[in-house]
User: Fold this.
Amino acid sequence: MNLPPGQTGIIGWFLNLMTRILSVICFLTWLAQPASAQFDSISRPAPVPFRATYQIYAGTQLPFQHVAGVEVRPIRQFSVFGQVGFPSVPYTKWMLTHFSPENRDIDYKYVRDNLQSSISYGVGGRLHLGKWRVSGWWQRLNYKVDGTPKRLVEAFAPDQARTIENITSALRPILPGIVDFYENQDLTPTGHFSQVGLSAGRTFYIPQVPRLSISTDLGVLYSARINTKVDRLEPAFLREFAETNILPLIDEEIKKQFESRFIPTLSISVAYQIR
Assistant:
């Protein structure tokens, strides 16, 4: 239906008026907002893309070792790290004193008095939830115990000492040096402890030094696998004798006492972000 020319002009005028009124209302509504909100969409900076960060850290992991490592954080929520450890003899002696299994077949006093440590290593990943973090990692600790083969057998498997002495006596006619090796020469077996861990903790940033932070983590370690080896033992017949008759006894007792055990751990570390 076609409207008369007069009505068409009125409708156009009315629509134009409503448009102006709506524009004024929108403008007044905008003016009524706080100044920060008025220009929020204009002044708000665009989100800054996350840049990968790298940091070095050092700390202590009770009751096992001191650590130093590097952590790489490719995205905001996740990072990976690698570390070397220096097992603490005082920590380990304290742990053997307070967490020794009820089975006292092992002479723990001898082990504590003759314990040595060597460099360990580990790798893991970390989930970041703001200042909180959840970590999972694998590490390998290495411990040595000094002593003659005879004294080591007496310390780790006293019930087998007489059997090993009989074996050395039987081998003496064909291996003249076997008795002297068993009774007088030092043998330093190394126990390799493979552990997996899970922990949760928090990072505390230092306002005066933005790149510096302190983290604390509480978790648990599980001794998944233990094996005992001896390095650089010559001649070959002595090495074969040790690997056949002595190391299996030590390895069996250590596994019986410490493998498949859960041990609580507390870690404190200081980190510096280098990028």
In short: The chain has nine helices and eight strands. The two ends are 74 Å apart (CA to CA).
